[in-house]
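$ run holo --ligand "flavin mononucleotide" --emit tokens
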Amino acid sequence: MRQTPSKLYHMGTLTNKRIVLGITGGIAAYKSAELVRRLRDAGADVRVVMTQAATEFITPLTMQAVSGNPVHSHLLDADAESGMSHIELARWADTALVAPASANFIAKMAHGRADDLLSTLCLATEGQVALAPAMNQQMWLNLATQENVGTLKRHGIRIFGPAAGAQACGETGPGRMLEPVEIVSLTTQLFSTGTLAGLRVLVTAGPTWEVIDPVRGITNRSSGRMGYAVAEAAAEAGAKVTLVSGPTALDAPQRVTTIRVSSALEMFDSVHAHIEGVDIFIGVAAVSDYRPASAASQKIKKHADTLTLELVKNPDILKSVAALSPAPFTVGFAAETENLETHAREKLIDKHIDLVAINDVSETDIGFDTEDNRLLLIDRHGKSELPRQHKSQLARALIQYVAERYHAKRAAQDSRPARR
Ligand SMILES: Cc1cc2nc3c(=O)[nH]c(=O)nc-3n(C[C@H](O)[C@H](O)[C@H](O)COP(=O)(O)O)c2cc1C
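-- output --
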């Protein structure tokens, strides 16, 4: 029995996912407009790339209107290259989804050809490539097509469908493109890695706000984006995630229990109220090291020429979590402007944490309040670099790394002989 559309996917399951939708020349291209709408309903940011043949079946104008972004179709286009080039599009994409995928396009991909924009970017992207074939049943059953599909599967390309049934050409058989809701559901599954399945993860994010008086406070430039992306990536990896967030302008991530706090003390209390049973703690929040010794109950007036604020130290949330017994696998973020590695190693040893992720905030165009970031990861075994990329992609790479380290630590603990 076919599932009803509402059971197939849920709103928001593609939040922050960047999808290049490729359209090739087939009758099913008329369904691509609905597919874009459904991908966007699920939260995805969609850019459409059309082959020349596809533009004969559905107009770029329609696709521009439904996607809300300019449509790309030429490889050798000086304007496009100065705006978003094929390489930028390939880097931008979390996933390149080609629907419908023609027999011709499948053949080209199987042989690594790159003679138009769509085939070139599918070759150039590091994101997952998925194809939803749509064609006449004889074209699908043709040995050449079947061999090409087999090659693509071996290359790690995902093939969605096709379904069998009545075709536009009047024949009946396999080759119909899956329905847009089914394609959205399968696309959502691309992001579910399962590497943290069954585990509990607690993430902190954002800045803290330390009250000076009713209208003023001490805070910092953290936007919360990195921590929210980490919480979301952990949820995608199958974990049950709690996010304790300082004040941010961001919407609560889907599938994550979000608790909003303001000051470092509130964040400390909230973390410790939710830490029991947590397997992995990731402290991404930029917690204020100090707070005013006392908060003025009324707005401080501008009478004196100078004003001295006495600051007292806030508790160290990361250190306090790492000191628990048993302690979760603990990951700390450090925003540094100099001597990145030295400071990270000091933090690792001083706080007894498992992994430090360092953010180089000396560069003005990455780090705080930006879309992109890069991280240097340091643990007892050595260091590893996650290159500059969008924070949501970086968060997924970090979660992958954390999952590997967590499982390795558990395996090492389990293999130790039990003490008498
Ligand atoms: C009316 C019409 C319908 C077509 N439908 C399909 C189709 O559903 N699937 C397919 O693989 N090719 C179909 N073709 C053939 C492709 O359009 C043709 O192979 C084209 O070169 C594909 O180019 P592309 O892969 O660059 O988009 C159709 C052609 C015509 C004229």
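-- notes --
The two ends are 57 Å apart (CA to CA).
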